[in-house]
Specification:
By secondary structure, the protein is an alpha/beta fold. It contains twelve helices and eight strands.
Length: about 280
């Protein structure tokens, strides 16, 4: 990837995060409910100990890292970071709401960490590396700042055909010309780390060992198609901005297409869209 292309994608990721931070904050509870299984897997894999320093990258509202705080104790510290100042501000508000005192909040690019070598005991990154235009550099930086024996725990999305929450609307928007066709890896994107082999190769290439991957199911609950589209528009990165930009007639047409696909996901209180995350841990 050229320097010019890298700069373009970095700006794109930054702009998207800044744009969706306010609505992501409003929908935090719904997202965290859907991703509870992923959050639990990552924390169990990281195994934070009292006195540890834990770094969360691309933290968004910070909920994954915040659940590690109790294990860290008074001598430990959580460093919550994101490329987006708006996301960091939202995480700070969430941390204050929870009454957390041993957390610092920093705007930081995961590919150019401003931390010393061998300075943290654990790193968390939930659905972050896959979107970074410099995710190879970010993984190398993660390895650099980890102390010997330190662990990383991460999550990415599995293949699109197993994640209809993104795939349904992505297919409709793509077929109607509102988003470009996704580029294959190494281009960044929600499915750029969608196989265990890909994740393992990237981690080992960055110098990690003892790589372990596991599929973790997730489930998004929505009341109806309108509720689904609203949740996408509030939280789903580039898909969110594409939906927000749709003319009214096109939005109506997209919703009509989705109505035909939704009956297979019917549940007692609306609809449940299944998904698969790929979680990994290494040292």
């Amino acid at each position: 990837m050229t320097t010019e292309t890298l700069a373009f994608f970095e700006k794109d990721v930054y702009d998207i995060a800044e744009a969706i931070a306010p609505t992501w904050e409003r929908r935090r509870e719904e997202i965290e409910q859907a991703c509870e299984s992923v959050r639990n897997w990552m924390l169990n894999a990281l195994r934070p100990q009292e006195g540890d320093t834990v770094l969360e990258l691309a933290a968004g509202l910070g909920d994954t890292g915040f659940e590690a705080v109790e294990a860290l104790g008074k001598r430990g510290r959580l460093i919550t970071t994101d490329l987006s100042p708006a996301m960091v501000d939202a995480a700070r508000r969430r941390g204050q709401e929870l009454g957390l005192s041993n957390v610092t909040y920093e705007v930081m690019d995961a590919g150019r960490l401003t931390l010393k070598t061998d300075s943290v005991d654990g790193v968390l990154c939930r659905f972050g590396y896959m979107l970074m235009p410099n995710y190879v550099d970010a993984l190398a930086e993660t390895r650099r700042v980890l102390r010997p024996g330190g662990r990383v725990a991460l999550a990415s999305w599995g293949p699109p055909e197993r994640n209809p929450f993104f795939g349904l609307i992505g297919m409709s928007l793509g077929q109607r010309g509102h988003i470009p066709a996704p580029e294959p890896p190494p281009a960044p994107g929600p499915f750029s780390m969608a196989t265990p082999e890909r994740i393992t190769a990237l981690l080992e290439g960055a110098g990690f060992t003892d790589v372990r991957t596991e599929e973790v199911p997730v489930r998004f609950s929505v009341p109806d198609v309108d509720g689904y589209v609203s949740l996408i528009a509030d939280t789903a990165g580039p898909l969110a901005l594409a939906v927000r930009a749709l003319p009214e007639a096109e939005l109506t047409a997209v919703k009509a297409e989705l109505e035909g696909a939704f009956p297979q996901f019917a549940a007692a209180d609306g609809f449940e869209l299944p998904g698969v995350a790929l979680c990994a841990a290494a040292r």
